[in-house]
Write a structure and sequence with these properties.
Layout lengths: L13 H17 L8 H12 L6 H6 L7 H22 L5 E4 L3 E4 L3 H27 L5 H34 L4 H9 L4 H19 L9
Antiparallel strand pairs: 1-2
């Protein structure tokens, strides 16, 4: 009896081909996961990690896995309180009053200014609440005060830059007419275009708050 022989040559099936392709792609992807850093790059990253991260919510978010020491935590609390009192002083204390003889004092804040100030505070509280919600999903020790103080201080610094820009622009325009800064500001407030400036100022100020607090709205995982 003649025995039957079977040809056992290997034939690549579609499934095995796909496996090889996926493994090859996975290997190629892994080549890009580990990149050797130069000495200067390592020094730069270590410097970023050890920095105080004041008014720098971006770096704080990037290195959020780094532990926050007790001293830095206390510093963040102090900055948060100072910035909070500063906002209360600007937006709520009744300093915008004018005294008229025989009539008394009246508030010079317009309804639009009152609405905008309330909205600014609402934006800050919304972002701080978003930060609290994100920390509930992924808790990081002492992170709330760190990010809240960094974001508030960022708002203060950006508003200082904005105020310097407005002041320098007003001084330049006043100099064209031979006026000092205070006279130019008073003349501008009495001008009809001042209402348009208030609308422009509203969007700029709201944008500053939204930009400075953007990392409060980001997930922490």
């Amino acid at each position: 009896m003649q025995s039957a022989t079977t040809n056992t040559e290997y034939t690549a099936t579609p499934s095995s081909t796909n496996d090889q392709t996926s493994n090859s792609a996975h290997t190629d992807a892994n080549k890009h996961l580990f990149v050797s850093l130069t000495k200067d790059e390592s020094l730069f990253l270590n410097k970023k990690r050890r920095s105080w991260k004041l008014a720098n919510p971006k770096d704080l978010y990037t290195f959020r896995g780094q532990s926050i020491g007790v001293f830095k935590h206390l510093l963040h609390i102090v900055i948060f309180l100072v910035c909070s009192f500063l906002f209360i002083y600007i937006y709520y204390l009744p300093f915008d009053k004018e005294l008229i003889n025989g009539v008394g004092s009246y508030n010079t804040i317009t309804p639009f200014e009152r609405f905008s100030r309330t909205l600014f505070v609402g934006l800050i509280l919304f972002n701080l609440n978003s930060l609290r919600v994100n920390l509930k999903a992924y808790s990081i020790k002492r992170y709330w005060f760190a990010m809240a103080s960094n974001s508030l201080l960022k708002v203060v610094i950006l508003n200082i830059y904005y105020l310097l820009f407005i002041t320098s622009s007003m001084a330049y325009i006043g100099a064209q007419y031979g006026l000092d800064l205070f006279s130019a500001a008073q003349l501008f407030e009495d001008d009809a275009s001042y209402e348009i400036f208030l609308i422009f100022d509203f969007f700029i100020s709201a944008g500053i708050i939204w930009y400075a607090f953007r990392f409060c709205r980001k997930g922490l995982k």
